[in-house]
């Protein structure tokens, strides 16, 4: 398969009117750009903001005691260790509730690490909850969990789903944890990923 032909902007002079050309720094999703021709940037690539990728990751930065009450995980920080990185288009987080920067279909992947502290616990449940009304109400999207004992003092559990964001004001997610007894903790760290969540924007909708 042959590579696409790249036509520099100066070759379109007199052929394509300037008003029909999109800016090299065009904003994503603007109706003002409908029908316009994309101009490649100085590297000969489609401007990254037109593709609007989102790759973001947060980690729990402190241990969270797991009790019999369902609680929201709220002690998050964006990853910042050497070698780690995210796109410039990022999510926002407030009191454990994650908001998305743009509409689209997102892959959400949560990894948890939890440990026995003082006693065996038979049921530990982690839940990914979503909302389409800014958490006036919510619905359970994914549930996972495990148990810990003296012979199995630590476990890991994932939560993975696709989340369709059609309204960035109202469509949000959060993670909760609950157990049938006290005696365990969800592991957090401000230096490395132990319990963490990853967001990837797969496509627009």
Commentary on this structure:
It is a single chain. The strands form two sheets. Strands 1, 2, 4, 7, 10, 12 and 13 form a seven-stranded antiparallel sheet that branches. Strands 3, 5, 6, 8, 9 and 11 form a six-stranded antiparallel sheet that branches. About 20% of the residues are buried. The protein is built from one helix and 13 strands; from the N terminus they run αβββββββββββββ. It is about 0% helix and about 40% strand. The longest helix has 4 residues, at about 50. The chain has one helix at about 50; strands spanning about 55-60, 65, 70, 75-80, 90-95, 95-100, 105-115, 120-130, 140-150, 155-165, 170-180, 185, 195-205.
The total count of helices amounts to: 1
Averaging pLDDT over every residue, what do you get?
Answer: 89
Number of strands: 13
Give the terminus-to-terminus CA distance: 28 Å
Largest sheet: 7 strands, antiparallel
Task: Outline the fold blueprint.
Blueprint: H1 48-51, E1 55-60, E2 64-66, E3 71-72, E4 76-78, E5 92-94, E6 97-99, E7 104-116, E8 121-131, E9 139-148, E10 154-165, E11 172-179, E12 184-186, E13 196-203
Antiparallel strand pairs: 1-4, 1-13, 2-12, 3-11, 5-6, 6-11, 7-10, 7-12, 7-13, 8-9, 8-11
